[in-house]
Design a protein that fits this description.
Elements (H helix, E strand, L loop, with lengths): L4 H4 L7 E4 L15 H6 L1 H7 L3 E4 L27 H13 L3 E6 L9 H8 L11 E2 L20 E4 L4 E4 L14 H16 L4 E4 L2 H5 L13 H15 L4 E4 L5 H6 L17 E3 L1 H13 L3 H8 L9 E5 L6 E2 L5 H11 L6 E2 L3 E2 L3 H4 L4 H13 L3 E5 L56 H5 L5 H14 L2 H4 L4 E2 L7 E8 L2 E8 L5 E6 L12 E5 L5 E3 L5 E6 L4 E8 L7
Parallel strand pairs: 1-2, 1-14, 2-3, 3-7, 7-8, 8-9, 9-10, 10-14
Antiparallel strand pairs: 4-6, 5-6, 11-13, 12-13, 15-16, 16-17, 17-22, 18-21, 19-20, 19-22
Helix pairs in contact: 6-8, 10-11, 10-12, 14-16
């Protein structure tokens, strides 16, 4: 194993942290988080072990969809700061070893964007074809609505010109027409601008939607939508050779594979499209396994992950900034997860997901919570944390929709959790209350507690970074053992190999393992399993066997070590 290789494809062993600037730290005490406040807190992320900071939209916005309704792709919302503040953030983060990426939201704009304001005034507007229009009334599209509680279809009549415009999300977010080369040029300008200011890439929002129109126009010079994604990746790489595109592609694995850009599927070529994709399928099967206290759904899914390009990566996660979608589960499976983790309809969203954070779903059991985060960091891929996960923040169901999990960061037990000294009414959302309120859950207290969740997650980030096989392994090996509640898996790359055990049940088990390739040869080096999360080693017998105790919701990280190995433990 050449450790220097991990620095070239940095994203394969990154620890990514997602946050919304307006809810992270308010430094000027106007009630809204700002870039300056985030910069002041960058050392918290550095201490945690974060190596890549993902910023949710910070652009000027009408603020009807928490910043995803953008009015200017080339600006910073004045509530948060300005471009100079952002450059200082990027520079300071880089000094701490943290790259910065940002949301690229190019499926749509706000209806208050100057392009759309011009487009809806006249059919002769130069920006008319920046959007998707229909001169005739479209058929019923209620089955295509993303937010069924808000919209009845994906087309809305514009009274000024008597035509319908398309919006796959809210009606105040008209879809951009990526079949128009001028729109693609505008997107390239956005990518170029922010890359020039120091960003190391983008998380691309709603990828299948924003590609949907490409290559459908007779005047388009592209033959396939993926041609555009390849062009965008190529353009980004020319501007910054280390930059990434991390895509939101919530599709079955076989369809996801195409978005990496390795059409033959053998995994030997470089990827030409998205650099990383979120593993939505694995995440949903994780929650099914948690609900059933049965590791087999997740084990089967991991074993079935398709081969991807050698420089591409899966982005693994437990929680993200949206609803915790369960749309890839069957109706019966989804009902199981709802019953276990969100039985109250107010905890559910759109009939397909949950608006809760992990600790509340697991009834605050620290053993259970730690097992899940241990599992996250032990899976092959790049782990992504959502802000507040490192301290076990809960949600506030009094907030509307997905905002329940986008509450202000809890820095200390004081006023507004230390987020802001402004009046609570001026905050972007309510602070979490009850058992997960700042008086109980905050950064300051956990920083001084060696047994806190923050300390534990910090240990996980450091151990993950010390085990490059977790990011570079070509596949995951599911190990045979007799307990349905236990996931035993192994990842290997070069001379590095690690076994991880996770018990999904509230009862202790003894796990027998056999590693046939770890049988010592005559007079060869002995083989043992070194525990990376606690003191002690486990010796393997002459047949490569061992038995390991796992308590209720227990977990073990075990590195395969041979006498003479020189890696630090």
């Amino acid at each position: 194993m050449r450790v220097r290789d991990t620095g070239d494809l940095w994203w394969k062993t990154a620890v990514i942290y997602c946050l919304d600037i307006e809810t992270f730290m308010d430094w000027d005490d106007d009630g809204v988080g700002d870039v300056h406040g985030l910069t002041q807190r960058i050392d918290h992320l550095a201490d945690l072990g974060v190596t890549c900071l993902w910023l949710m939209p910070f652009y000027p916005t009408a603020d009807r969809d928490d910043g995803y309704d953008i009015t200017d792709f080339l600006g910073v919302d004045p509530r948060l700061g300005d471009a100079g503040d952002l450059v200082e953030l990027v520079r300071t983060a880089r000094d701490r070893g943290i790259r910065v990426i940002a949301d690229l939201v190019v499926n749509h704009t706000s209806d208050r964007h100057p392009w759309f304001r011009s487009a809806r005034r006249s059919k002769d507007s130069p920006y008319r074809d920046y959007y998707v229009w229909s001169a005739t009334k479209p058929p019923d599209t209620s089955d295509q609505v993303v937010f069924p509680d808000q919209e009845q279809g994906i087309w809305t009549l514009d009274e000024a010109t008597g035509e319908w415009y398309r919006h796959r999300f809210y009606r105040h977010q008209p879809d951009l027409n990526t079949a128009n080369p001028r729109v693609r040029d505008e997107i390239a300008k956005v990518v170029s601008y922010w890359t020039q200011l120091g960003l190391s890439g983008f998380r691309v929002d709603a990828v299948p939607f924003f590609l949907a129109d490409t290559a459908k126009s007779p005047h388009d010079d592209l033959e396939d939508p993926h041609d555009y994604l390849r062009d965008l990746r190529s353009f980004l790489t020319r501007r910054n050779g280390e930059a990434i595109l991390m895509g939101e592609v919530n599709l079955p694995y076989e369809q996801q594979r195409r978005f990496f850009g390795d059409d033959d599927g053998d995994g030997t070529a470089d990827g030409t499209e998205l650099t990383l994709q979120f593993d939505f399928v694995g995440m949903q099967q994780l929650y099914l396994s948690l609900a059933r206290q049965d590791a087999r759904p997740l084990a089967t899914t991991l074993a079935g992950r398709p081969t991807i390009p050698h420089d591409a990566q899966w982005a693994t996660f437990v929680r993200n900034h949206d609803e915790l979608t369960l749309d890839k589960l069957s109706d019966d499976e989804r009902a199981e997860v709802f019953a276990a983790f969100g039985p109250d309809p107010d905890m559910q969203l759109y009939g397909r997901g949950l608006r809760r954070r992990l600790p509340t779903m697991l009834d605050g059991d620290p053993r259970h919570v730690r097992m899940v985060y241990s599992l996250l960091f032990s899976l092959p891929g790049t782990p992504v944390l959502f802000y507040g996960e490192e301290i076990g923040m809960g949600e506030n169901l009094a907030a509307e929709g997905r905002l329940a999990v986008r509450t202000p960061m809890q820095w200390n037990e004081g006023h507004n959790g230390g987020f802001s000294r402004a009046a609570p009414s001026r905050l972007p959302g309510p602070v979490v209350e009850d058992g997960y309120a700042p008086v109980h859950v905050n950064v300051a207290a956990q920083r001084r507690d060696p047994d806190s969740l923050l300390t534990f997650v910090t240990t996980l980030t450091h151990r993950y970074r010390e085990c490059p096989e977790l990011g570079w392994a070509r596949e995951v090996e599911i190990l045979d053992q007799p307990h349905d509640s236990v996931l035993a898996h192994r990842v290997t790359w070069g001379d590095g190999s690690m076994v991880a055990l996770h018990n999904f049940a509230p009862r202790a088990v003894t796990v027998p393992l056999r590693l046939p390739d770890c049988v010592p040869e005559d007079d060869g080096p002995a083989v043992r399993l070194a525990d990376l999360l606690q003191a002690g080693d486990t010796e393997l017998d002459e047949r490569g066997r061992a038995e390991l105790e796992l308590p209720a919701y227990g977990y073990r990280w075990l590195r395969v070590v041979r006498d003479g190995d020189r890696r630090l433990l």
